[in-house]
Amino acid sequence: MFESLPLLPNDPILGLSIAYAKDTNPNKVDLGVGVYKNDAGQTPIMRAVAEAEKQRIVRDTTKAYTPPAGVPGANEVATRLVFGAGHPAVEAGRVRTVQAPGGCGALRVAAELIQRAKPGANLWVSTPTWANHIPLLGSAGLKLREYPYYDYATHSIDFTAMLNTFKEIPRGDLVLLHACCHNPSGADLTPAQWDQVADVLEARGIIPFVDMAYQGFGEGLEEDAYGLRMLSARLPEVIIATSFSKNFGLYRERAAALSLVFANPQQADAGFSQVLNVARAIYSMPPAHGSTIVDIILHSDELTQLWHSELTQMRERIAGLRVQLVDNLSRLQQARDFSFIARERGMFSFLGLTVEQVHKLKNDYSIYMTDTSRISVAGLTVEKMDYVSKAIVSVL
Ligand code: LMR
């Protein structure tokens, strides 16, 4: 039967890491996958994580299954991290959090739950959105529709077009919003724009589904959660997928949480039972290691402080690289304005190059980025900054 399966091309994002690893050019630069790197071009284990791992070995005495929702302490701290202390929806008993195998796992479980509650529901995603949102959420049976978001000409959000589309979306449809550090554009809503979005969603009975994969990489842990916290305080139902891959550097451990805000505690209990049932039908229960690390760190004042300072360093390093890249590019040429890169946040920005220019960067300079010219800014280093800037200018 397998003879019917054709060979597929590599994943447009993950495939870049494979090609990069094979490249023997000593000057190669990986601006592909959204993985944080330090100035040595490495993705180190965070010190808070390494310490929590030591504590975990002492603390854990069994490898027996965790409960279906995952490590209990981790759900408590994840809820606090996502919603902040004393959030009205949490206080009212309207929130349920479960762990999930990575941000993808959280998104997929949410999609399966939506599919149970409203088969074939319309889910509106930004143009553009993270490439993997489409197969990940669409193959659960949801119908994906698009709303305008990033204007490539002005390198900013076309907020008027976005809001006008929201005003036309049928009641009961869902919209997928990026909490912060929009992937792939790096262009985020301001708090005032979030408020306007909430007004429209509330008036029209549209349900927000928020993907928060980069909490702490934009403006800060609290600031980055502004939109989803405000929506959860105002609207009866909100779906939030939170990944710990980036902000705890736990990529391969697949640590994430799915938080659901329900209209009332009774619906929350029913919804929670359904989520566990969805997970049981796919993977039974989530992996424990990464979530245990999050649990240990966020239950320790000392480790939380260390983690905050490491996360702040990562955020500031990326923001600094953005400024340096803009300075370099404007020094080397004046025909094109790249200042938007310094205004954008998180791992990504579009350079605004054609596919041919992207391929030339790869073939002639061993500089890797997606065909859309999305760069993962964290892949730059001070040492490679000049090399990359000159290469970009040479293909313009
Ligand atoms: C990215 O967009 O590069 C990251 O979210 C990693 C991935 O899985 O695509």
Automatic annotation (TrEMBL):
GO molecular function: identical protein binding; L-aspartate:2-oxoglutarate aminotransferase activity; L-tyrosine-2-oxoglutarate transaminase activity; pyridoxal phosphate binding
NCBIfam families in alphabetical order: PRK09257.1
Top-rank taxon: Bacteria
InterPro entries hit by this protein: Aminotransferase_I/II_large, Asp_trans, NHTrfase_class1_PyrdxlP-BS, PyrdxlP-dep_Trfase, PyrdxlP-dep_Trfase_major, PyrdxlP-dep_Trfase_small
Cofactor(s) in the UniProt record: pyridoxal 5'-phosphate
Pfam families listed in its UniProt record: Aminotran_1_2
Enzyme superclass (EC): transferase
Domain Aminotransferase class I/classII large: 27-392
Record's keyword terms, sorted: Aminotransferase, Pyridoxal phosphate, Transferase
Any one of the GO CC terms: cytosol
PANTHER family: ASPARTATE AMINOTRANSFERASE (PTHR11879), ASPARTATE AMINOTRANSFERASE, MITOCHONDRIAL (PTHR11879:SF22)
Naturally occurring in which organism (per UniProt): Cellvibrio mixtus
TM ranges: none
CDD domains: AAT_like
Quaternary context: Homodimer.
Protein name according to UniProt: Aminotransferase
Sequence similarity: Belongs to the class-I pyridoxal-phosphate-dependent aminotransferase family.
UniProt keyword tRNA-binding present: no
GO biological process: L-phenylalanine biosynthetic process from chorismate via phenylpyruvate
EC number: 2.6.1.-
